[in-house]
Amino acid sequence: MxxxxxxxxxxxxxxxxxxxxxxxxxxxxxxxxxxxxxxxxVQLVIFSPxxxxxxxxxxxxxxxxxxxLLLVFAVLNRGNVGVLLAGGGTLLNAVxxxxxxxxxxxxxxxxxxxxxxTTSATxxxxxxxxxxxxxxxxxxxxxxxxxxxxxxNVFSVGDVLIAVGVALLLATAMRAPxxxxxxxxxxxx
Length: 189
What we know:
Elements: H1 2-17, H2 34-46, H3 56-76, H4 81-99, E1 104-106, H5 108-114, E2 126-128, E3 142-144, E4 153-155, H6 157-175, H7 182-188
Parallel strand pairs: 1-2
Antiparallel strand pairs: 3-4
Helix pairs in contact: 1-6, 2-3, 3-4, 4-6
């Protein structure tokens, strides 16, 4: 979720820096945005203390279902470059998590750099990579160094694509001119 917060802040800052306006976001036309809200809500629940009540097998299945919702959204809105990039990152993360039985492998080096515990326990959906993990190069192998409160974390190539996609989506939507309404069109004639 931290990746999304940073991406949204960067997208809004870039949108303003490029002369965009926040009000232009209301004209952004995306299909079935509730899929994103539902998927992120599910992930918030399963990675919160509430998720401890869900059996591990069910948690993995629900987690993967949330990725399916995000991918359906990306396919439906593939004409938007930002959504397409974020969808590509989501797909990469889903492939790695699926290949590893429901968790994202994190390199010990990245976890150490972020100042996170390097035991076999998970951090969100990341776990210390072990011999035999699949697609580690696409796992959480990058880090924001420890010592930066709230921001220290590990992340993947997929997370980078998601962040770039979300930032691009917001920045370009803020720059888009508002559509001319019937009243405005009559006045400009």
